[in-house]
Amino acid sequence: MSTRTKPRVGPLASRLGTSPHLDVDALLDDPSTHVVVCCGSGGVGKTTTSAALALRAAERGRKVVVLTIDPARRLAQSMGIERLDNVPRPVPGVVGSAGGSLDAMMLDMKRTFDEVVEAQASPEKAQAILSNPFYVTLSSSFAGTQEYMAMEKLGQLRQDARKSGRWDLIVVDTPPARSALDFLDAPERLSGFLDGRFIRLVLAPAKGPARLMTAGVGVVTNTMAKVVGAQVLKDLQMFVAAFDTLFGGFRNRAQQTYELLQTKETAFLVVAAPEADALREAAYFVERLDADRMPLAGLVVNRATPALDGLSAEQAVAAAERLEPASGDGDQDGSRTTAGLLRLHADRARRVDREQRMQQRFQAAHPRVPTVVVPALSTDVHDLDGLREVGRLLAG
Question: Which member of 21, 81, 194, 328 has the lowest number of beta carbons within 10 Å of its beta carbon?
């Protein structure tokens, strides 16, 4: 499995046989790293991780743009920007003496789709496509459109960066999908649908030998009209007729961006929470990246319960049980309070043990994946200082 950072193994990791440490700063400082993709299942902190990495890279001297696909729009708030949209906007308050900069944007999948149509089609054909009801549905809510447009926007940003030199690092927050694999699979599914032979066979006018199939096609078309409605079928026919010349371009650009993700200038970070489902999804993604020969930088385990010193869970429970019979004594309130704190300590110690066991199972199955564990913060991240703290924890 390929990795972008040189494993840095500390003495504790050596004793425990855990995975090598992920050196985040070495990754961000590497001038050959131009794209960092944060991926993982939903709700594991990809957006916060992406923003913190982008801010840290900028304050270490990189010219960064971060692309987020975050329906909660927390990124704009934490970066002090009134709004984020499909246009990269400078983030105020970035500090550092190395000349770095940070822009941020939020994917607008419909606007991105519209821009591609407007750039690739004549004004008349573009207007016919943009006003088509089937296209409006496809560009707004069709399964896989968001993932496809994230790939489109990444390709646009990389092309712009190469031409203008405006950015030397793009950080991508992948879409919150039910399965982390959707980010890689959906663009191919959508482009395959748009370029599908079945659609062309059923909806395109019969030509040449295809005339021999007119009767059969008519039966299929009539059946589809009954199922989806005649107007919907007509909208689809008009959309395919207008979109015909753009099919190849969509597929070619998706393929180019896919190939960009396979190059050495890209680094994937798999983000997970210390939970069974999230780590299982992370394992699937690590294996998929390896199978597709995409450069994996490492694993980020977010919001881990900080480890405790002192009593184990069993010792804390035993101490609490010794205190509780003393409730008949004069200091009942003090004994109860102390026993309650001991039981809270025991619950937290059990949680730490459970999380560590799950991480060890992942590490046993993927021993060469560099890993960094980020402890949970006591408060939500809502400003640049919060992002700086997350970045500091990511850097170990």
Answer: 328
